[in-house]
Amino acid sequence: MKRFPPLLLLAGPGILFILVTLILPLAAIFMFSFWRTESYELYADWNLDNYRTLMREPAYLVFLLRSGLGALATSLICLIYAWPVAYFIARHGGRYRLLLVLLLAAPFFTGVILRIAALQGILGPGGLINMALGILGFQPIAALMYTQTAATIGHVYLFIPFMVTAIYLSLVNFNFDLLETAKVNGAGPLRAFIEVTWPLNWIGTAIGIVLVFIPCLASAVTPRFLGGPRATSFGMSLGQQFGETGTWALGSAMGVVLFLASLAVLALMGLTVNLKRSGFTGMGTR
Amino acid sequence: MTSVGDRAEAWRRRAMSLLLWLLYIFLYAPILYVIYASFSVDIVWPFPPSFTTDAYAELFDNALYADALANSLLIGLGSGAVSTLLATAGVIGVLRYPSRHRGLILIAFLAPLFVAELLIGISSLAFNARLLGLPGNLFSAIAANAVEGTAFAFLIILAQLVRYDWQMDDAAMVFGAAPVRCFWEVTLPTIWPSLLGAFLISFILAFNNLEISFYNLGAIPTLPSVAWGSLRFGLGPELFALAALTNGLVFVLFAVMYVLMRTGIVRFGYRGG
């Protein structure tokens, strides 16, 4: 009997699982996006009407742009804030490193909806912040109540742990002795950071950016509860096609657009990664 | 010159730790708010404070919450177990048996990270309902949640195991240990913290998932879907009470972990001095 290759035995089940539960469903909505829905039923007459609708109705473009800009703002804020935090944990966390990182993940034990509701309770009218301002005799901050800003704060709140963790995981495997070498050779801290630390940890950082950008682009719950009436996002509209309105074919087309947009961002970030210059040594060289 | 550099270094370090603590405050303020509001008489206008434990009594009286909690736990445990198992096998395969398909295998395991939950939810709903003719059920919800869980578990385990020294396993094999025995007696005792971390993360993700579970379950309640439903008529204080209890448990676990780390009984993979 031919011996089964161990790699296939070990990695095969996982790959098969992802094929069946991720790739096939995505292929299914790609197919449905060329179908037609009529009174909640899908009919297989192949056409491009769904995509035509998406291009003709300006509302969908507005939703997509709004979600895209929101995701961009969130990613940038998370990026700038997460770097020093991740750096501190990786370099100075000592034996408590894992605990410090897990503390960032612990809020996930509370569901997204409850945390968003609590943020609403803190930011909203009659919430903690505006209440305190009122008692102190100041005007409430209108920007925090049901605006795009509030939605962005919500997104940063939800996704910044991903960014910190991605950068942290990269920094944990980074050899900090290189900074000593840079110092010995006359580089100041800023120059050592720009020329050594940043490029050598760019892969982790890029993964962090993608991990924040993509869920943010598809976000539906947060803008609904924090964003107010003029914050309808692409994700919200997409969810409605599969819920209230039951237009599955159009929803599938929106899903395809969302997937392609995510893929474009991923490809863009991928282009910035240069394996040779990022210190990638081919993982666990034996 | 050196002392100036050292002082600047110390200052940077303090500034970074300040940012870390501010982040913790930002992340935990809503959690503390949930706990505070769970004891409040009126959760919509909880200021000024007035306390009651009605929400907790209500929580234990209402069968809907018990149902939702059981379903969420099932999805969390099922998805966590599937994810950790598939990811562990995948990581060991990729690291131990170099192959020219390595890049492809990595891409396959990590691909779900780059697909939004909403998209996983609606696509598996569309696939199951329209192509397979399956109504929403717990198994499809577990499977759909495990897609994302597997990717996260894979990433976590990979990040830790990249530094694992496989020569220990080779040594065990040389002395005649079968691969399975070698895994149980050599590999597992060393790598278990990262497996536990991977399980916990995939458990939490599935336990609290709204968008994947919601589209896969139809009318079967989970905690997030009950919360989602009740938002329309104002959030039930019972959910705040349940979240407060969960957080209490998590904080106790972290306190235990801190004590273990402090005393050095369990090092959770930390090898430094």
What is the CATH domain class of chain A?
A: Mainly Alpha
Low-pLDDT regions of chain A: none
Shape estimate of chain A: globular
Q: For the largest interface in this structure, which chains are involved and how many residues does each contribute?
A: A-B, 91 and 108 residues
Mean pLDDT across the residues of chain B is 83
The residue fraction in helices of chain A comes out at 55-70%
Q: What would CATH call the class of the largest domain in chain B?
A: Mainly Alpha
Q: Could you tell me the number of beta strands of chain B?
A: 0
What would you call the structural class of chain A? mainly alpha
Q: In angstroms, what separates the terminal alpha carbons of chain A?
A: 30 Å
Structural class, from helix and strand content of chain B?
mainly alpha
What is the radius of gyration of chain A? 23 Å
Description:
The complex is a heterodimer of chains A (286) and B (273). Chain A has a single domain, classed as MetI-like (MetI-like fold), CATH 1.10.3720.10. In chain A, 70% of the residues lie in helices and 2% in strands. A two-stranded antiparallel ribbon of chain A has the order 1-2. The radius of gyration of chain A is 23 Å and the shape is globular. With 286 residues, chain A is an all-alpha fold. Chain B folds into 2 domains: 1-34; 63-241, MetI-like (MetI-like fold, Orthogonal Bundle). Chain B has 11 helices and no strands. Chain B has helices spanning 2-38, 54-61, 63-96, 102-110, 117-131, 138-161, 167-174, 179-207, 211-217, 223-231, 237-263. Classes of the chains: A mainly alpha (286), B mainly alpha (273). The interface between A and B is large, with 91 and 108 residues.
